[in-house]
Every structure is written in C-alpha cells, then in structure tokens.
Amino acid sequence: MSNFTEEDIKNISTNSSYIRGVSYYENGRILSKEYHKNKLTAQVQGSRVYQVTIVNKTDSYGFSCTCPYDFGGICKHCVAVGLDLIHSEHNLEEKTDKNEGTSEKTSYLKVKELLGMASREEQEEFLKRLLKESESTKNRFETFIKGQLAIEEDLDITDIREQIVDTVLKIDLENVNRFYEAHNSRYYKEQWRILYDEGREELSDKLDFILANIEKYLEQDDIIDGWKFLLAGYEAARTEKINSVEDPYEIFYEGLGIEILDIINEEYINQIERYIDKNPPDKKVKLRMLEVMGNRLSQKQDEIKYNLKFFQPILLSLITKSSTATFFKNILAETKEKCKNIAEIYLKITELTDSAEKWEEYALNNYQNNPEISKKLLNFYQKNKNTEKYKDIAKNIFNNFPNRFDEPIFNYLKDKGNTSFLKKVLQHYLSRTRNISLYRELKNRFGEQEAENYIKQRRDKRIESQFYIRLLKEEEQYNKILEYLKENIDNRRIDYIVKPIIDIYPEECVTLLKNKISQYLESNTGRKIYKQAIQWINLLKNISDKKLEKKIDNYIENLLDTYTRRPAFQDEMKKAGFQ
C-alpha cells in the first residue's frame, strides 16, 4: 500500500484502538478480503463479524466499519485491516486525474520565524480559523488560557458509574460461547483460552466508553475529568451488580469485576500515568484530583470499597510536595478504615511532612513484605553511610527478595569485608546470572575449596547442567566433562557437553556419538528423529582430528547405505549436505 504507513494509521486512531487493532491483525481476526480497484472490503471477527471498508481517495484514505464504535478516530477493526493492507502486495488505485501533478514536500519554517512573518492581525485571523475548524483545538486553547480548574465539567461520578454498569451488564456471554462453537476449529487453543479471549474482547468493547472519554479529556488537557471517568470505571467494577453476574461458561474465572479492574489497570491507569509524566499538573490541579478521590472515599450511601494500592502509581505522582502530602494525609485520617495496603503512600507523605527519624521508623515497620520500601531503606542507609544498620536489614531483605536485591547488596558490601552473608549473597547472584566473572570473584574472595564446593552443588541440578559444564571448562576439568557426558549420553541435548571436549577426547567422543546415533535410528523413525540425529552427526563432523576424519566419513556412508529404504532420512541427509 503505497504512500500510507503504520504511522499514518497511528495518527488517525486512538492509542487503545491502535494497540487492539495490532492484536487483531497479528491474531488473524480478518476473515475475508475483497479488492475493487480503489476500494477494499474485509470481514473482521470482533464480538460480532463486522465489515470494514477502505477507499483510496485523491489525497487520503477513507475508513468505515459497521461496528458501533464512535469515540474518536478509526476503530480497532479498521486498524487491523489497514495494517493488513499496508503489509500486503495490493495497492488501491487512486481516483485522480492522470495529468494531476504531484506537489513537492512543504518545507516548514521554525515556529518563531513563521510567527515573525505574520502581523498580529494575521496571527489572530489564523487562530480564529483554527478554533472554528477544530473543537479539540478550541478546547485545548481554552485550557491553555483559563487553566484546568476553570474548564472542569460538572460530572457526577455516580451517574457515570451507573452508566458503565448498565453498559457492561449488556455483555452477551451466550454470544461468546456461540463464537467458540462456530470457530473453535480455526484455533489451536484450549476451550477455556478461546472463551476467555473472546469474552475479554467483548468486555473491552463495552468499556471503550470509559477509555474514549479519558482520551478525549486528556487530549483537551483536562486531566481532572479524565480522572473522574477512571474512578467511575473502578467503582463500577466493585459494585454488587457487576460481581453477581452469572457466568455459566466460567469465562472469567475470577469474576467479571476482577476482569474489569485488570483492563482498567492495563489501559486506563497507564493513560493517566503517561499524561502526568509528560504534562506534570500544577499544585492546584493535583489538589483537586486528590480532593475528588477524597470525596469518593468519604461517600457513605454506596459503600464502594476502595483499594488505594490500585491507584498508587498515580497518587505517588500527585503527592510531590508538602502541600499535597498534608492535604492527602488529612483525607486518609478521615477514612482510615478504607485505606489498606498503602504503606508506600504513607511513607511518601511522611518523607514530605515529617522528620528523617519518623521516616526511618515508618520504613522499618513496613519494609518486610514490601520490595519498594526495602529498596528505599537500603538506599537511605547507604546514602547515610550507616553500614551496620544496612547489614542488619539487608539480611531480612535478601531472605524475602533474593532475586531483586542480591546485586545491589553485593555491590555495596563487597568492599566491607568477606563475611558468610556476603558469600551467601554472591553465590545466589552467581547462580541467578550464571556470570563466570562472578565465579572468579567467589574463588578469589573465598578460596578454591569454596569454589569447588559450589561446582559440586551444580552437578546434580539438571536445570543448571549447562552452567555446570561452563564452570568445569573454566577450571579446565575436561575429564569431569567427559565423565558427565558418559553419564548423560542418553539425553537429547548433549551438544553443550560435547563441544568443550571434542578436540581433547576425540576418540571417546566419536565412539559415544556413533553408538548414540546408531541406537537412536534403530529404534525410531520420522523426520523429527532424523533431524535430531543429523545434529549429532554434525558434532562428529566438527572433530578436527585428521586421523578420525576418514573413520567419520565411512560411518556416515554406512548410515546412508543402512537406511536406503527410509526416503525421509535420505532427504534430510541430502538437505544437510551429506550426499
């Protein structure tokens, strides 16, 4: 599809529609396609089968779809078909005059130079035209002039929540099951996976209402109203109506409400986070967003249970100064019974409103099961060069989160003396990363016997067998590698054992490999079997001992003669270059 790219599709779709459209395209949701000169029509499997039409106009491409999507930009079905067209060999003809010339690319001047070329009256006239032509541009300009607080709409979160609930309750789980019965032969998946994927897709369609409004308000730089829609979606997922929906096909194993929260977390929370990161709100906007949250926490009539940990990334990005910290601290004090599992938020508030001693006290009381607070506490003691306290808590933190903290703990303590704890941390770090340089560090710090003991411990752990061979190679203990090869010659994967010793013990390797290949071919048939055998034959051919070269060639010729009645074997050997 000439003159049209994936970037163009991104520009005419919302972020969520594009991401889902990519998924549709990659997962083969396009059922059929028909090309008609300048037009393409395609059938796309969504929660229903929808028809997408793409028309190549004179200076643009027109997209339409029979789905009900109407939230700005093209829908995911159009995205999928557009991507398919881009990556196909088809080009839609343009309806244009043959003599029509092509315009050269416009060279845009820098904004400052461009403004300098226009008088104030011309600038005002152009701005008026822009504001008349685009509602979105007008809204953003209003936000720029008045500030976000001035454009906040009088949205009722409870009303929005009920609207979302009513929409979600229309989900047709029967239709999901009908889809499975009609299309299960097209997918190489288990029944539960097909049902879940289709159910998730249908649910995402119902929730497009929330995301479209969040994206609309963020596009207008109105994060406060976008925040309200996010809270309304969260509350909808926690309502009794949603969580009491019957699911006879067990499509959503953990329940419809949990599934909605998962979608909100994946798509909607990220939208708000990215916006805040790119456009940090001022203090007044942050306070207003926290106030909106506080109002929902204090509501009595609906008894929606909030778990603030769900919103933690956003809340932490809002609580950045003592003013916002104090404000939210007061909110939490009034709704204490509803605020569980938010130690990181309380820690941030303490950091901004109280002394370092109070911060340390709170961190020490809450780090045990929280890796983020553990990290902050380690950094606190490291920054203050308090090695003794660092060591004390590092032992607990390492026991709780060894994979996450072995590296930073080792890097800080490695210059503080070789202790049994440091050895334990280094051994774990070495086993996790399998970095030979760390093995050398272990050997240099704690001696050859400790290094030898470490290698022995790896020997019987099948999951670490390749690392065991690398350690033996590092120590040039090739006799032990040969011994290990003999013990494990029946394993399918032996290449990593053979390669380090093939030129040190060539005759032994040849004998072991020949016996393995012959026995394998005698008792098995099939192309997969032959391809595996050829991998072992290639190991034989890698032996550089000239005395054995003729012996190996004769063995290969003998295999070809022995299995002349196995055409698949002969064919695979030919492909591998052995004929």
Your description of this structure?
- The chain has 31 helices and four strands.
- It is mainly alpha-helical and 579 residues long.
- A hairpin with a 2-residue loop joins strand 1 and strand 2.
- Among the domains are: 6-86, no CATH class; 506-575, no CATH class.
**Mean pLDDT score, rounded?**
87
Give the helix level as a range of percent.
55-70%
Q: What about the largest sheet?
A: 4 strands, antiparallel
Counted beta strands: 4
Distance between the termini: 44 Å
Derived from helix and strand composition plus strand pairing, the structural class reads mainly alpha
Beta-strand fraction estimate: under 5%
Detail the poorly predicted runs. Answer: 95-109
Strand order of the largest sheet: 1-2-3-4
Count of DSSP-assigned helices:
31
Principal-axis shape equals globular
Q: For the CA atoms, what is the radius of gyration?
A: 33 Å
Keywords for this structure?
single chain, 579 residues, mainly alpha, four-stranded antiparallel beta sheet, 31 helices, 4 strands, 65% helix, globular
